[in-house]
Amino acid sequence: MIKKELFDGRYEILKVIGTGGMSTVYLAKNIKLDTLWAIKEINKVPSVGIDLFVEPNILKKLNHPALPRIFDIIEDKNSIYIIEDYIEGITLDKKLLRCGRIPERIVISWAIEICKVLIYLHNLKPNPIIYRDMKPSNIILTSEGKIKLVDFGIAREYKTNVENDTAYIGTRGYAAPEQYGSAQTDVRTDIYSLGVTLYHLLTGKSPNEPPFTIKPITELNENLSKGIEYIVAKCTEIDPEQRYQSAQELIEDLINLDKINLYYNKRLVIKKLKIALMIFLLLFFTYVTYIGIIEIKRFL
User: Fold this and answer.
1) What are phi and psi of 232, to 5 degrees?
2) β-strand partners of 29
3) How far, in Å, CA of 173 to CA of 192, rounded?
4) pLDDT of residue 294
5) How far is CA 129 from CA 36, 92, 262, in A?
6) Where does ATP bind (predicted)?
């Protein structure tokens, strides 16, 4: 933990703004520039399979308006310190605490923004970046209403010549099944976690509270559309082959949600017409049978 009032001779530590298993994030002011920064302190605790320099090394490669910029890396015998943009806003887990659940139209607009970030990360050269930790607490809504993705602590580069991940880690409930298996995580891993995040935002139900499973979302909120229910269900398929295969595929369905809803509405109308026809035929044949019995009795 940073105990100095003035860190590195220029950063005044104002307060702790986040804590995790191996890290603490501080809000700090550069007294020379009079600017605010976030300082992430990562403890050098021996951890098998975890490279503590993965996050700063990944952040150095990134250049996207929805991602934090890295300014400096400082190291001592106990910790690594990442100096990066301070993003002012509210994390979506805290937003959920205030609101209970988020209206569908707002969630869709956020999902489109997140997909654009994933498209950027998943198409980086020479190796795509797999984020692996999508969840409400890692998404910040800024005061301007923009979405920012933070905390690349367990992100990794996807490499075609690797069969599995070096470490199996993720946030329980949001992590895809393959994050704890014997396969390499890929872009579909982020699709799964985004699907669980959308589920949480739309229903107000965390995957870590009863019923501890991803149910059809209209069972929890009947006002949600069948289109968004289809999207969440496809994102969260256990088998990666059954999910969206890219963030581009997903964003296309999000943008064309009205078409998906129209398709489901047509199916619903057809289903109702079939039921009505079956009832009509059942009543008709019942009536004909009744008349037939009456006529037979008359002739006997």
Assistant:
1) -60, -40
2) 12, 36
3) 11
4) 79
5) 27, 23, 35
6) 40
The region that residue 43 occupies, defined by phi over 0 for left and psi between -120 and 50 for alpha, beta otherwise, is beta
Alpha-carbon separation of residue 255 from 48, 129, 171, 223, 248 (angstroms): 42, 24, 28, 19, 11
Residue with tokens 């150095």: 60
Instruction: Give which of 96, 69, 80 is closest to 25, Cα–Cα.
Output: 80
pLDDT value of residue 267: 62
pLDDT value, residue 169: 75
- Predicted TM-score (pTM) of the model is 0.84
Give the Cα separation of 25 and 209 in Å (integer): 27
CA dihedral 120, 129, 251, 168 (to 10 degrees): -160
Give the separation between CA 292 and CA 273, rounded to whole angstroms.
28
Q: Point out the residues of the chain with pLDDT beneath 70.
A: 3-4, 46-50, 161-168, 182, 265-274, 276-277, 280, 284, 287, 300
pLDDT at position 97 is: 96
The structure tokens listed for 202 are 């739309």
Kindly tell me the burial class for residue 84, based on how many C-beta atoms sit within 10 Å of its own C-beta (0-12, 13-18, 19 or more). buried
Whether 258 sits among the annotated catalytic residues: the reply is no
Query: What b/e sequence results for 48-71 when a residue is b if at least 16 CB atoms lie within 10 Å of its CB, and e otherwise?
Result: eeeebebbbebbeebeeebbbebe
DSSP string, 213-226: S---HHHH-TTS-H
From the annotation, which residues make up the binding site for ATP?
40
Q: Which of these, 123, 52, 113, 39, lies nearest to 81 by C-alpha position?
A: 39
Dihedral sign for Cα 67, 68, 71, 75, please: negative
Instruction: With beta carbons less than 8 A apart as the criterion, state whether 156 and 168 touch.
Output: no
Q: Which of 133, 165, 190, 253 is catalytic?
A: 133
Find out whether the peptide bond into 211 is cis, omega within 30 degrees of 0.
Answer: yes
